[in-house]
Structures are given as structure tokens and as C-alpha cells.
Amino acid sequence: MSQMLDFDDNAARALEAMYTTPDVVGQRAKVIEMLAPAPGEHVLDIGVGPGLLAHDLARLVGEAGRLVGLDAAAAMLKVARTRLAAMPQAECVEGDAADLRFPDASFDIAVSTQVHEYVADIDKAVGELHRVLKPGGRALILDTDWRSVVWHCSDQALMDRVLKCWDDHLADPHLPATLGARMRRAGFRVLRVEIVPMLSPQWQPVSYAAGIMKSIRGYAMANGERHGLAQAEVQAWYDDQLRLAERGEFFFSVNRYAFLAVR
Description:
42% of the residues lie in helices and 23% in strands. The chain is α/β, with parallel strands linked by helices. The chain has one domain: 3-Layer(aba) Sandwich (Rossmann fold), CATH 3.40.50. Strands 1, 2, 3, 4, 5, 6, 7 and 8 form an 8-stranded mixed beta sheet that branches. Strand 1, helix 3 and strand 2 form a beta-alpha-beta unit.
């Protein structure tokens, strides 16, 4: 059974810091390029998080358009609402990705980055995405497949155990492998699938790799016992990465996959 992350105020601040790293800034640029939002369009951002993507999308659709950011976490909504406060075309609401409380055919665009991998009933969520889009509307879903990780370490067996524990924070840590077929079954026509790598070929403290390393450590410290992981082992895993960084031997890469589809 998965044990999801708790997106409280501390988690919201940590996520915001990670989302401002160059890796994730590049991801947002790729998402915007694929969606090509136009002035006047109505956009739904499912899992708005700290509102960074929503802010960019709201600027691009302009005051003639509309941006609705949806999130289940009050702490995330607080950050996003602050970021979007000066934009009359933008609003943030609490909601569930698998139960969208919007009328049929409400949006030209729906986007979801790093959200659907947390959703237990993914087929219902994709069906809801299809329902709220106008005919011809575009959807973009981006998620990580953690089988794609390449991460240098001194103890591969320990790394495998830590990552197995980390898998538990998601409903489906390998969603991209089945996502295209799920979208087609829901009625979408998948236009493009792009790899969005999170790559750190050397240590950089301001990076996705550095941020996710801290997140994994915190999660494994709290939940590792169910996998037979002692806290001392988790700390040993973390310390090994710091030693590799000091020696110039750090390497991390994981792939995210962006699916662009039309209703």
C-alpha cells in the first residue's frame, strides 16, 4: 500500500524551491511550447502546486482568457493564490483530479504535471479530463517513470531498497508506460510524447537532483521501516551521495514523459 506525501506548509515551500531550479524551469518551457496557449483561451491547471506554471499560462492567455488552478492541498493553494493575486483572469480552487467539478466542455486546455501518478483511479481522472475539455481542446499530462532512474552510488543494493521505498509515495510510479493507451481509451488522440529529462551529470546544490535527494531521505526516514530500512541505513545512503559529490563523482538522471493529446 502506498503512503502518499503530506503537502503541508513545509512541503509546499520545499516544492516551490525545487520548481525554481533550472531543470524544472526547462520543463515548464517544454510544457508551454507543447501546449501553445493563445490569448483568450481557458486553461485548467490540475495540481497547480506553487503556481509557477499557472502564472506563465495566465500571462499567455491574458485578461481575455481564464486560468483555473486546482489542487487538493490547502498549503499549495495558499502559495499559488499569492503568486496569482494580481491576475484577474486567474483563480485557484480546491478539488480532486478524479472528480472535476466543472461543466462539460469548459476549457480549451487542461494540463497536469506530476499529479496523475498520485491518483488511485487514473482511468476516472483521464475520463474527467476528457469531459471538461471542449471538442478540439488540448490536454497535456506529464509524469515520471522511476524505472528510468540512473543514479550513481557506492552500494547498489541499498540504493535499490531506498528507491523501492520511495515508490510507495505514488499510486503508480511507472504511469507513463500505460498512460498513452489510457488516454486513447478515454477518447483522446495522442499527438506527441516527449521525454523531459531531469539530468545532473555533476553535483549542483540548486537542482532537481539535490531537492529530490532531500525529499527521498525525508520520506525514507519516516516510512523505511515497512521496507526493513533502518534510519541509519537511509542516512548512510544520503551521506554516500554527499561523498560522491565531494569527489566529483555524482551522477543523477530520471525521465519525465509529456503526453500531448486532443479531445
